[in-house]
Amino acid sequence: MGNPLRSEISISEQKDHLRADFKAKLSLLSKDQIDQGSEKIAKKLESLIEQNSTWQKLGAFYPLASEPNLLSVYKRLLKKNKTLFFPKTREAGEMDFYNVSDDLELSSFQKAKLNIMEPRSEQKVQASSLQCLIIPGLAFDENANRLGRGAGFYDRYLANTKGAKIGVAFSEQVSKEDLVWDEFDQKLDFLVTDEKVYHWERMLK
Questions:
Q1: Cβ proximity of 39 and 78 under 8 Å
Q2: Of 169, 175, 159, which Cα lies nearest the Cα of 127?
Q3: For residues 97 and 129, is the Cβ–Cβ distance under 8 A?
Q4: For 110, phi and psi rounded to 5 degrees?
Q5: What percent of the chain has pLDDT over 70?
Q6: Which residues pair with 41 in a beta bridge?
Q7: Distance CA 77, CA 50 (A)
Q8: Who's near 120: CB < 8 A, 6+ residues apart?
Q9: Rg over CA atoms, the chain
Q10: What does the alpha-carbon distance between residue 78 and residue 24 come to, in Å, rounded to a whole number?
Q11: For residue 115, what pLDDT is reported?
Q12: Which is it for strands 117-119 and 109-111: parallel, antiparallel or unpaired?
Protein backbone atom coordinates (compact mmCIF):
# COMPACT_ATOMS: atom_id res chain seq x y z
CA MET A 1 0.00 0.00 0.00
CA GLY A 2 1.11 3.54 -0.72
CA ASN A 3 1.63 6.25 1.82
CA PRO A 4 -1.79 7.86 2.67
CA LEU A 5 -0.06 11.23 3.06
CA ARG A 6 0.70 11.21 -0.65
CA SER A 7 -2.86 12.13 -1.55
CA GLU A 8 -2.64 15.33 0.48
CA ILE A 9 0.01 16.99 -1.70
CA SER A 10 0.34 17.31 -5.46
CA ILE A 11 2.26 14.83 -7.59
CA SER A 12 4.73 17.58 -8.44
CA GLU A 13 5.41 18.26 -4.75
CA GLN A 14 5.77 14.55 -4.02
CA LYS A 15 8.32 14.25 -6.83
CA ASP A 16 10.27 17.21 -5.46
CA HIS A 17 10.44 15.56 -2.03
CA LEU A 18 11.64 12.32 -3.60
CA ARG A 19 14.28 14.14 -5.63
CA ALA A 20 15.63 15.76 -2.48
CA ASP A 21 15.71 12.39 -0.71
CA PHE A 22 17.58 10.60 -3.48
CA LYS A 23 19.99 13.47 -4.08
CA ALA A 24 20.89 13.17 -0.40
CA LYS A 25 21.44 9.41 -0.78
CA LEU A 26 23.67 9.92 -3.81
CA SER A 27 25.71 12.56 -1.98
CA LEU A 28 26.71 9.90 0.56
CA LEU A 29 28.36 7.68 -2.05
CA SER A 30 32.15 7.93 -2.11
CA LYS A 31 34.13 8.17 -5.35
CA ASP A 32 35.27 4.56 -4.86
CA GLN A 33 31.66 3.41 -4.48
CA ILE A 34 30.68 5.29 -7.64
CA ASP A 35 33.63 3.88 -9.59
CA GLN A 36 33.08 0.31 -8.42
CA GLY A 37 29.32 0.50 -8.92
CA SER A 38 29.80 2.00 -12.39
CA GLU A 39 32.03 -0.87 -13.48
CA LYS A 40 29.50 -3.46 -12.29
CA ILE A 41 26.71 -1.66 -14.12
CA ALA A 42 28.88 -1.39 -17.25
CA LYS A 43 29.51 -5.15 -17.33
CA LYS A 44 25.82 -6.00 -16.90
CA LEU A 45 24.82 -3.42 -19.51
CA GLU A 46 27.36 -4.73 -22.03
CA SER A 47 26.07 -8.28 -21.52
CA LEU A 48 22.47 -7.13 -22.02
CA ILE A 49 23.36 -5.36 -25.27
CA GLU A 50 25.30 -8.40 -26.52
CA GLN A 51 22.21 -10.54 -25.90
CA ASN A 52 20.21 -8.22 -28.16
CA SER A 53 22.35 -8.13 -31.29
CA THR A 54 19.80 -6.13 -33.31
CA TRP A 55 20.51 -3.08 -31.14
CA GLN A 56 22.97 -1.21 -33.36
CA LYS A 57 21.99 2.44 -32.88
CA LEU A 58 22.23 3.28 -29.17
CA GLY A 59 21.28 6.42 -27.28
CA ALA A 60 23.83 7.08 -24.51
CA PHE A 61 24.63 9.90 -22.05
CA TYR A 62 27.71 11.65 -20.67
CA PRO A 63 27.62 11.17 -16.87
CA LEU A 64 27.33 13.77 -14.17
CA ALA A 65 29.63 13.17 -11.19
CA SER A 66 26.88 11.35 -9.25
CA GLU A 67 25.72 9.18 -12.18
CA PRO A 68 27.04 5.80 -13.34
CA ASN A 69 30.11 6.42 -15.49
CA LEU A 70 29.71 4.16 -18.51
CA LEU A 71 32.31 5.70 -20.81
CA SER A 72 34.41 2.53 -20.66
CA VAL A 73 31.61 0.33 -21.98
CA TYR A 74 30.69 2.93 -24.61
CA LYS A 75 34.25 2.70 -25.96
CA ARG A 76 34.02 -1.08 -26.08
CA LEU A 77 30.69 -0.86 -27.90
CA LEU A 78 32.20 1.46 -30.50
CA LYS A 79 34.89 -1.14 -31.16
CA LYS A 80 32.09 -3.66 -31.73
CA ASN A 81 30.70 -1.40 -34.47
CA LYS A 82 27.77 -0.06 -32.48
CA THR A 83 26.75 3.51 -33.30
CA LEU A 84 26.39 5.86 -30.32
CA PHE A 85 24.34 9.01 -30.01
CA PHE A 86 24.42 11.52 -27.14
CA PRO A 87 21.76 14.08 -26.12
CA LYS A 88 21.83 17.79 -26.74
CA THR A 89 19.12 19.94 -25.17
CA ARG A 90 17.25 22.78 -26.84
CA GLU A 91 14.53 25.22 -25.87
CA ALA A 92 11.13 24.30 -24.42
CA GLY A 93 12.40 21.20 -22.64
CA GLU A 94 13.24 19.34 -25.85
CA MET A 95 16.37 17.41 -26.79
CA ASP A 96 17.85 15.47 -29.71
CA PHE A 97 20.59 12.87 -30.02
CA TYR A 98 23.76 13.29 -32.09
CA ASN A 99 26.34 10.80 -33.32
CA VAL A 100 29.73 10.65 -31.57
CA SER A 101 32.12 8.22 -33.24
CA ASP A 102 35.72 9.23 -32.39
CA ASP A 103 36.33 7.04 -29.33
CA LEU A 104 34.56 9.59 -27.10
CA GLU A 105 37.42 12.07 -26.83
CA LEU A 106 36.65 14.95 -24.47
CA SER A 107 37.09 17.35 -27.40
CA SER A 108 33.93 15.84 -28.92
CA PHE A 109 31.86 17.36 -26.10
CA GLN A 110 31.23 20.82 -24.72
CA LYS A 111 29.90 22.02 -21.39
CA ALA A 112 26.30 23.22 -21.65
CA LYS A 113 23.62 24.26 -19.16
CA LEU A 114 23.94 22.87 -15.63
CA ASN A 115 27.49 21.71 -16.47
CA ILE A 116 26.15 18.87 -18.61
CA MET A 117 28.52 17.69 -21.33
CA GLU A 118 26.86 17.70 -24.74
CA PRO A 119 28.16 16.52 -28.14
CA ARG A 120 29.63 19.01 -30.60
CA SER A 121 28.40 16.83 -33.44
CA GLU A 122 25.63 18.05 -35.76
CA GLN A 123 24.78 14.55 -37.03
CA LYS A 124 21.30 14.20 -35.56
CA VAL A 125 19.43 10.90 -35.47
CA GLN A 126 15.66 10.55 -35.65
CA ALA A 127 14.16 9.29 -32.40
CA SER A 128 12.42 6.47 -34.26
CA SER A 129 15.81 5.15 -35.49
CA LEU A 130 17.28 4.47 -32.04
CA GLN A 131 17.01 0.81 -31.12
CA CYS A 132 17.76 1.32 -27.45
CA LEU A 133 18.37 4.22 -25.09
CA ILE A 134 20.52 4.13 -21.96
CA ILE A 135 18.86 6.47 -19.48
CA PRO A 136 20.04 8.07 -16.22
CA GLY A 137 17.75 9.28 -13.45
CA LEU A 138 17.57 10.15 -9.79
CA ALA A 139 15.35 7.29 -8.65
CA PHE A 140 13.74 4.12 -9.99
CA ASP A 141 11.38 1.47 -8.64
CA GLU A 142 10.69 -2.20 -9.32
CA ASN A 143 7.67 -1.46 -11.51
CA ALA A 144 9.42 0.23 -14.45
CA ASN A 145 9.07 3.80 -13.13
CA ARG A 146 11.79 6.43 -13.31
CA LEU A 147 12.16 9.81 -11.60
CA GLY A 148 14.32 12.32 -13.46
CA ARG A 149 15.67 15.68 -12.41
CA GLY A 150 12.46 17.54 -13.19
CA ALA A 151 12.95 19.14 -16.60
CA GLY A 152 11.13 16.38 -18.53
CA PHE A 153 13.67 16.11 -21.36
CA TYR A 154 13.76 12.32 -21.39
CA ASP A 155 10.02 11.77 -20.98
CA ARG A 156 9.29 14.03 -23.96
CA TYR A 157 11.92 12.31 -26.09
CA LEU A 158 11.02 8.76 -25.08
CA ALA A 159 7.40 9.35 -26.06
CA ASN A 160 8.60 9.44 -29.69
CA THR A 161 10.76 6.31 -29.79
CA LYS A 162 9.99 2.61 -29.81
CA GLY A 163 13.54 1.65 -28.87
CA ALA A 164 14.18 -0.36 -25.70
CA LYS A 165 14.39 1.97 -22.69
CA ILE A 166 17.19 0.96 -20.32
CA GLY A 167 17.54 2.76 -17.01
CA VAL A 168 20.93 2.61 -15.28
CA ALA A 169 21.42 3.29 -11.59
CA PHE A 170 23.21 2.42 -8.39
CA SER A 171 21.25 0.08 -6.12
CA GLU A 172 20.84 2.97 -3.66
CA GLN A 173 18.64 4.68 -6.26
CA VAL A 174 16.04 1.91 -6.36
CA SER A 175 13.03 2.81 -4.22
CA LYS A 176 11.50 0.12 -2.05
CA GLU A 177 8.10 1.78 -2.65
CA ASP A 178 6.49 2.62 -5.97
CA LEU A 179 7.43 6.09 -7.18
CA VAL A 180 4.69 8.60 -7.87
CA TRP A 181 4.05 9.08 -11.58
CA ASP A 182 1.67 10.72 -14.02
CA GLU A 183 0.49 10.12 -17.57
CA PHE A 184 3.51 11.93 -19.05
CA ASP A 185 6.09 9.68 -17.37
CA GLN A 186 7.57 7.02 -19.64
CA LYS A 187 7.97 3.46 -18.39
CA LEU A 188 11.22 1.51 -18.75
CA ASP A 189 11.86 -1.86 -20.35
CA PHE A 190 14.98 -2.62 -18.30
CA LEU A 191 16.81 -1.29 -15.27
CA VAL A 192 20.49 -2.18 -14.84
CA THR A 193 22.01 -1.67 -11.38
CA ASP A 194 25.26 -2.78 -9.78
CA GLU A 195 23.33 -5.63 -8.14
CA LYS A 196 20.86 -6.90 -10.75
CA VAL A 197 19.03 -6.40 -14.05
CA TYR A 198 15.28 -5.81 -13.98
CA HIS A 199 13.29 -6.70 -17.10
CA TRP A 200 9.67 -5.84 -17.73
CA GLU A 201 8.61 -7.95 -20.72
CA ARG A 202 5.19 -6.33 -20.97
CA MET A 203 6.93 -3.16 -22.16
CA LEU A 204 8.61 -4.72 -25.18
CA LYS A 205 6.94 -5.22 -28.55
A1: no
A2: 159
A3: no
A4: -140, 150
A5: 94
A6: none
A7: 9
A8: 107, 108, 109, 110
A9: 16
A10: 34
A11: 83
A12: antiparallel
